[in-house]
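Quick question, first post here. What does this chain look like in 3D?
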Amino acid sequence: MAAMQATKERWCEAEAHRVAGEIALKSPRRDVAKAQACFERSLTLARAQQAKSWELRAAMSLARLLTEQGSRQAARDVLAPVYDWFTEGFDTSDLRNAKALLSELH
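> Answer (accepted):
Ran it through. Tokens below.
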């Protein structure tokens, strides 16, 4: 994050926030609120940049967290529209993982 601030390079900012959220979930002092905020920030940034791949990753991370919290419908509502935007590339690991997650949520 500091490097992005220093260089003003923002092309991967959404992914950096998503990864920060994943770290917050895996750290010894698991911080769900921080993770959710990071995932939501990542989604916002990806949408603003029209970066659909980053948006898909952020949506998957947030959907997994929402599912863990018992909010399956909210998880579907976050992930399905992003996944449905894609018209090709369904053999990529991100889209395969998104499809599997959506299948679990239905």
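The chain is about 75% helix and 0% strand.
The mean pLDDT is 93.
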